[in-house]
C-alpha cells in the first residue's frame, strides 16, 4: 500500500513472463495473489495496480492472456468479511501458517521457547503450526469459505502452508470444500495420499 511500485514491479515481472510464453504459442494462466488483505478496500487498491500493469504489458507486447487476481486469507478479519472480499477476489488461498499465528497471538519466531511446555502440560493437543487447529482456526476457515462462496459461488479456494502436508488438516480442507492444498515439495506425496483418502472417505 505504502510502496505501490513494489506491486507494479512484481506484477510486471509476472505478466512479461506470461506475455513471452504467449508469444511462443504456449497457454498461460497466471494467478496473482495479494497477501495479507484484511478489507475490500485494500484488495481493490492493489487489484487496480495489477490490472493496470496487465493492460500495459498486453498492449506493449501485442498479446493477450487470461489471468486471475485473488488474495491470501491470513488474518482473522479477512475471514469475517470474506463475502466482501470475494466480490472482487477470484480465488482465496488460506495462509494457514500466518492465520494460525494471528488467531492464537503466537509469534512463530519465538513459539519454540514455550510451545513444548504447552504440549507437555496438555494445554494444546498438538502443535497448531503442524496440525490445523480445527476448533478455532478451522472455524475461521470454514466461515471464510462459506462467506466467500456466498458472494462468488465459483470461488476457487485452497490453502498454502505446512498444514497442506498434514493428513488430518488435508481431510479438514476436503470437508469444507477446498479445491486444492499446497505444501513443501517433500510433503507432496503425503498430501496426495491424504487427499485421495479424504475423497474416498467422504465420497457420499
Short description:
The chain is built from nine helices and five strands; from the N terminus they run H-E-H-E-H-H-E-H-H-H-E-H-E-H.
Core attributes:
204 residues; alpha/beta; five-stranded parallel β-sheet; 5 strands; 51% helix; globular
Q: What is the domain tally?
A: 2
Mean pLDDT: 95
| Structure classification | alpha/beta
What is the global morphology?
globular
**CATH superfamily assignment of the largest domain?**
Phosphoenolpyruvate-binding domains
Radius of gyration: 19 Å
Describe the largest sheet: 5 strands, parallel
Q: Give the percentage of residues in beta strands.
A: 5-15%
Uncertain residue segments: none
CATH class value of the largest domain: Alpha Beta
For the biggest β-sheet, the strand order reads 1-2-3-4-5
Using DSSP, what is the number of strands? 5
SSE order in H/E notation?
A: HEHEHHEHHHEHEH
Structural overview:
The chain has 204 residues and is α/β, with parallel strands linked by helices. It folds into two domains: 71 residues; 125 residues, TIM Barrel (Alpha-Beta Barrel), CATH 3.20.20. The chain contains nine helices and five strands; from the N terminus they run H-E-H-E-H-H-E-H-H-H-E-H-E-H. Helix 1 crosses helix 2 and helix 8 packs across helix 9.
Q: What's the layout of helices and strands?
A:
Blueprint: H1 4-23, E1 31-34, H2 40-61, E2 68-73, H3 76-80, H4 82-86, E3 91-95, H5 96-104, H6 115-120, H7 137-151, E4 156-160, H8 167-175, E5 180-182, H9 188-201
Parallel strand pairs: 1-2, 2-3, 3-4, 4-5
Helix pairs in contact: 1-2, 8-9
Amino acid at each position: 500500500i505504502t510502496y505501490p511500485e513494489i506491486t507494479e514491479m512484481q506484477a510486471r515481472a509476472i505478466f512479461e513472463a506470461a506475455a513471452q510464453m504467449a508469444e511462443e504459442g504456449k497457454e498461460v494462466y497466471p494467478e496473482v495473489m495479494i497477501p495479507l488483505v484484511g478489507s475490500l478496500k485494500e484488495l481493490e487498491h492493489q487489484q487496480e495496480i495489477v490490472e493496470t500493469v496487465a493492460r500495459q504489458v498486453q498492449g506493449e507486447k501485442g498479446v493477450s492472456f487470461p489471468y486471475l487476481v485473488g488474495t491470501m486469507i491470513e488474518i482473522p478479519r479477512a475471514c469475517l468479511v470474506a463475502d466482501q472480499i470475494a466480490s472482487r477476489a477470484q480465488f482465496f488461498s488460506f495462509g494457514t501458517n500466518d492465520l494460525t499465528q494471528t488467531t492464537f497471538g503466537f509469534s512463530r519466531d519465538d513459539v519454540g521457547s514455550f510451545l513444548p511446555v504447552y504440549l507437555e502440560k496438555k494445554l494444546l493437543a498438538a502443535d497448531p503450526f503442524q496440525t490445523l487447529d480445527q476448533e478455532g482456526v478451522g472455524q475461521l476457515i470454514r466461515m471464510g469459505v462459506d462467506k466467500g462462496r456466498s458472494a462468488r459461488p465459483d470461488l476457487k479456494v485452497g490453502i498454502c502452508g505446512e498444514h497442506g502436508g498434514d493428513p488430518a488438516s488435508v481431510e479438514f480442507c476436503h470437508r469444507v470444500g477446498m479445491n486444492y492444498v499446497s505444501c513443501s515439495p517433500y510433503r507432496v506425496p503425503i498430501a496426495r495420499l491424504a487427499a485421495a483418502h479424504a475423497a474416498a472417505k467422504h465420497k457420499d
